[in-house]
Amino acid sequence: MSRRLPVPEPIARLPWKVLFLVVAIATFGQVVLYSAAGGSLKPWAFSQGLRFYVFFVGAIVLSYVPTRWWRDMALPAYAVITLALVAVELIGAVRGGSQRWLDLGFIRLQPSEFMKPCIVLACARFYDMLPPGETRRFSAIWPAALLIGIPGAIVMKQPDLGTALMICAGGATVMFLAGIPLRLFVGGALAAAVAIPLAINYALHDYQKNRILIFLDPESDPLGTGYHISQSKIAIGSGGITGKGFLQGTQSHLDYLPEGQTDFVFATMAEEWGLIGGCLLILAFLLVIRWGINVGQAASTRFERLTAAGLATTIFFYVAINLMMVMGLAPVVGIPLPLVSFGSSAQMTVLLCLGILMSIDRQNRRSARW
Amino acid sequence: MRRPPKVVTEAMQAYSFSRRAWLLGSAQLGVGALLAGRMAWLSIAQNEKYNTLSESNRVNTTPIPPRRGWIVDRHGAPLADNRTDFRIDIIPDRLEDEERVLALLQRLLSLPPEEMERIRLDLKDAPGFQPVQVAENIDWDRFAAVSLRQPELPGVAPTRGFARNYPAGAAVAHLTGYVGAPTAEQYKATRDPLLVTPGFKIGKDGLEKSLEPVLRGQPGAKRVEVTARGKLVAELATRPDVPGRNQRLTIDTGLQEYAARRLGTNSGSAVVFDVRTGEMLAMVSMPAYDPNSFSDGISHWEWQMLSDNDHVPLMNKVTQGLYPPGSTVKPMNALALLHAGVSPSERIFCSGALRVGNGIFHCHARRGHGPLDMKNAVMQSCDIYFYEMARRLGYDAIAPTAKLLGLGQKFELPFGSQRYGTVPDSAWKLRKYKTKWTVADSLNASIGQGYVLANPLQLAVMAARIASGRDLQPSLLADRVHLDSPALPFQSEHLQIVREAMFGVVNAGGTGGAARMYVPNVALAAKTGTAQVRRITMAERRGGVLSNGQLPFKLRDHALFVCFAPADNPRYAAAIVLEHNGHTVRNLDTPMIGRDIMTYLFDRDRAMTSLAEVEPTWGGDIRTRMAAEAAAYQAARAAPPQAVATKTDAVVPSDSASVERATDLANATQAAVQGSEANGTTIAEEGTTERNP
């Protein structure tokens, strides 16, 4: 196998650099959680840290899994998770109300969370199987669209707008990378521009509709749903360039900022660490994502390339949607900031992505050495 | 598709991937830059805005009522100051074991059950950081009792605030007015949180009301850090208040108190001027309410007692009481006659009655005064002299002088409502009643009856202008004294004649002999007056006029008095008006009251001695008498006094409107009588006589 794209030297070595970045981001997250709890390891920082290192070690272990395993497991895993989504939906229908969790007794699983990396794997596997000559045919599109559409629709129905968006975006990214004609994406973007207002009117639940309307004008309801966005902007804006200082944030400590340890953790951080802390965090994430893309560039098989770039983009979506949300650039859709927000799902997903990326990276270096 | 699909090879695919991955990476970098830019916008460009919002989230400020500026007299002695007010508050967030604490407080402060109920309700509603009032204005012993046990009373805050204090009490009530809690309407108009702060009071009447902007000051702020749920986290630095400015008056508080006491049981008023400057040295209206208890909020029965009193303690008679000035206008008449060219030596023969048309006008001296020149006419207060002169010249020749001397004029004084009476003339009557002026109108006006109405302030101005010969403007605020008032357009010889006549009233066998002062080298010049408030029927006249003592209070004559001293070099001028006094008790009549008030200005000890002799005869000083009246009123009420004082704003006259109502009520009788008197023909039949002491 020929190397058409040279892998940059630093990346070629063991990914210590990216491991260091990930540990740094997570550690910073724990510091923020320590402050959000009013200067206490409990209830968030300690358990978050513990879980992080468990998953982190898990990710390193996953990096030893040969990439062909991922390739072989992609579609079966997709099938299992889709079934789990259906099961969640059925249980929810029986119990009534919105249902996202599958309670296995010892752990509560959120299958939609696993679908975020899995859709990337499944799509990558599909285009891997597709003969290159078929790429510009309709047969290159509809199976992928179906792969994306089924879980997307189920999750949308849960209803979990943010996750559904991420699943669709993850799948679409792989389609884009696989070489589907660009005009389809341009056309799709135009279609979305038409469809979104219609969807807002007819497809969304009232509370979702409300969130979007309030996103467009947060001051219209400063004590209701707009409260989140307003308080988050106050926290970020009042932090200034250098922040109010560690443990000095008033918005979070005096409970003005809702969800200050989960979805709005970035605002908690920005209040105390300011623009500098925020930019460093964004930079760290961008470096991790760039590493992921570069792993894809360096990969030797189509599945590996698509998977690596797709998973890197999944991490990107997490970060971008969350930050746009807390800065008032997107509606509140309930996407946490991975590695920083308190909670295990996103953390696990992102470290799973990282494990697969490292596995591909290991494969790359092996190929390069040979 | 028309053209055949491009054949895509694996190599092409890899190349396309690399390009598109690069594109994707660039887009991601772009989004990253966008996010960083957005964050910079929020935290740099809009930092100030969000900092303010964050602070207003975090910090909750409670206004601290500013200390009210003092009202001081010309020597700096306080007419209204602030005393320490001991109060107990509860800070809900700090409160533990509410029931035990409240029970202990109830015992220590002996609070009635109604108050306990109010406290419980307030505690339920109050946000955690805002103090809830338990009791205000408590005495030192109870305050100390609570303070001592503070360790067992978590959340209870004994605090020292300020409450308004009027050292002279009722003697200054109508001058200073009083303060009280703002009304709901006032809060709605401004939305100023200060107005709903416990313990904050605003001026409700008198100077307290009109000087509100000067006296109020700037509130301080107690700043506390609170959570989103309103829980108190920490107390921050307190911003101190800026006390209101003090206002110095021209009043002499010693004289003010003395005059108030010397008026005794009268329903009356007294005004004293410094004739060199027009400064008011005293402005008394008695009886009055106690502004101290008004400012604390008075009970319903107290209010009722004041409303029921026929001596109208709620009315400032100095500016709002209107009276026929009676014979006190005779010096003014004399000046007008001199001005019109009447010779002061011309004699008019007084037979006791004068026929004008088909009516007979009587003199108060039934048998007549005989021939009188101008000075003697003033000294003896002869009605016939002035009837004759008014008949000859017409009142239109006199009215301009009345106006020049201040009658019917409105003065620039810091009081919301002044009633300034009437100086009638033919044009006025035509305008008002669409009827022609009659000779009888002139005659009635010439003795200060009929259409003529004046308030005590105007009478004092009249005396001061005669005494000084200058166009004095009364002033009450020490920083707004009208100096350099121009001379009045009267010849000084004419003024001198009038002053000599007024000297004669007291010192040369005139009607005011009782007013003679016993201060060496100081002689009083004065003019007495009586204003009738009822018609005397022919039947009554035939059967002998009833003495005032036999009449009900409301039908007795008003007693009036204007004076200045020293007669040869005037320094002070005064007017005293006693409603329905009827000249029944010598000590409580105008000449002796006037004499004593003027004596106070020259020989304080003599005045005090005189007061000490007479005051016990009418039941002691103001406080003693007010306490006795309150006790009597309570005893007379069938129902036992309510256990809880209903603190009300609603019933207390919160503005001049209700005072005016009281005024109108008080003047209703009077106006009705005058209305019939003012009718020229009936008067002519029965005459309007004046009796002098």
Automatic annotation (TrEMBL), chain A:
<dbReference type="InterPro" id="IPR011923">
    <property type="entry name" value="RodA/MrdB"/>
</dbReference>
<dbReference type="GO" id="GO:0009252">
    <property type="term" value="P:peptidoglycan biosynthetic process"/>
</dbReference>
<comment type="function">
    <text>Peptidoglycan polymerase that is essential for cell wall elongation.</text>
</comment>
<comment type="pathway">
    <text>Cell wall biogenesis; peptidoglycan biosynthesis.</text>
</comment>
<keyword id="KW-1133">Transmembrane helix</keyword>
<dbReference type="Pfam" id="PF01098">
    <property type="entry name" value="FTSW_RODA_SPOVE"/>
</dbReference>
<feature type="transmembrane region" description="Helical">
    <location>
        <begin position="138"/>
        <end position="155"/>
    </location>
</feature>
<dbReference type="GO" id="GO:0015648">
    <property type="term" value="F:lipid-linked peptidoglycan transporter activity"/>
</dbReference>
<comment type="similarity">
    <text>Belongs to the SEDS family. MrdB/RodA subfamily.</text>
</comment>
<dbReference type="GO" id="GO:0032153">
    <property type="term" value="C:cell division site"/>
</dbReference>
<keyword id="KW-0133">Cell shape</keyword>
<keyword id="KW-0812">Transmembrane</keyword>
<keyword id="KW-0808">Transferase</keyword>
<feature type="transmembrane region" description="Helical">
    <location>
        <begin position="339"/>
        <end position="360"/>
    </location>
</feature>
<keyword id="KW-0328">Glycosyltransferase</keyword>
<keyword id="KW-0573">Peptidoglycan synthesis</keyword>
<feature type="transmembrane region" description="Helical">
    <location>
        <begin position="305"/>
        <end position="327"/>
    </location>
</feature>
<keyword id="KW-0472">Membrane</keyword>
<dbReference type="GO" id="GO:0008955">
    <property type="term" value="F:peptidoglycan glycosyltransferase activity"/>
</dbReference>
<dbReference type="GO" id="GO:0051301">
    <property type="term" value="P:cell division"/>
</dbReference>
<feature type="transmembrane region" description="Helical">
    <location>
        <begin position="49"/>
        <end position="67"/>
    </location>
</feature>
<dbReference type="GO" id="GO:0005886">
    <property type="term" value="C:plasma membrane"/>
</dbReference>
UniProtKB/TrEMBL annotation, chain B:
<dbReference type="InterPro" id="IPR012338">
    <property type="entry name" value="Beta-lactam/transpept-like"/>
</dbReference>
<keyword id="KW-0121">Carboxypeptidase</keyword>
<keyword id="KW-0573">Peptidoglycan synthesis</keyword>
<keyword id="KW-0961">Cell wall biogenesis/degradation</keyword>
<feature type="domain" description="Penicillin-binding protein dimerisation">
    <location>
        <begin position="63"/>
        <end position="235"/>
    </location>
</feature>
<keyword id="KW-0645">Protease</keyword>
<keyword id="KW-0472">Membrane</keyword>
<keyword id="KW-0812">Transmembrane</keyword>
<dbReference type="GO" id="GO:0009252">
    <property type="term" value="P:peptidoglycan biosynthetic process"/>
</dbReference>
<dbReference type="GO" id="GO:0071555">
    <property type="term" value="P:cell wall organization"/>
</dbReference>
<dbReference type="GO" id="GO:0006508">
    <property type="term" value="P:proteolysis"/>
</dbReference>
<dbReference type="GO" id="GO:0008658">
    <property type="term" value="F:penicillin binding"/>
</dbReference>
<keyword id="KW-1133">Transmembrane helix</keyword>
<dbReference type="GO" id="GO:0071972">
    <property type="term" value="F:peptidoglycan L,D-transpeptidase activity"/>
</dbReference>
<dbReference type="Pfam" id="PF03717">
    <property type="entry name" value="PBP_dimer"/>
</dbReference>
<dbReference type="InterPro" id="IPR036138">
    <property type="entry name" value="PBP_dimer_sf"/>
</dbReference>
<dbReference type="GO" id="GO:0009002">
    <property type="term" value="F:serine-type D-Ala-D-Ala carboxypeptidase activity"/>
</dbReference>
<dbReference type="InterPro" id="IPR017790">
    <property type="entry name" value="Penicillin-binding_protein_2"/>
</dbReference>
<keyword id="KW-1003">Cell membrane</keyword>
<dbReference type="GO" id="GO:0008360">
    <property type="term" value="P:regulation of cell shape"/>
</dbReference>
<keyword id="KW-0378">Hydrolase</keyword>
<dbReference type="InterPro" id="IPR005311">
    <property type="entry name" value="PBP_dimer"/>
</dbReference>
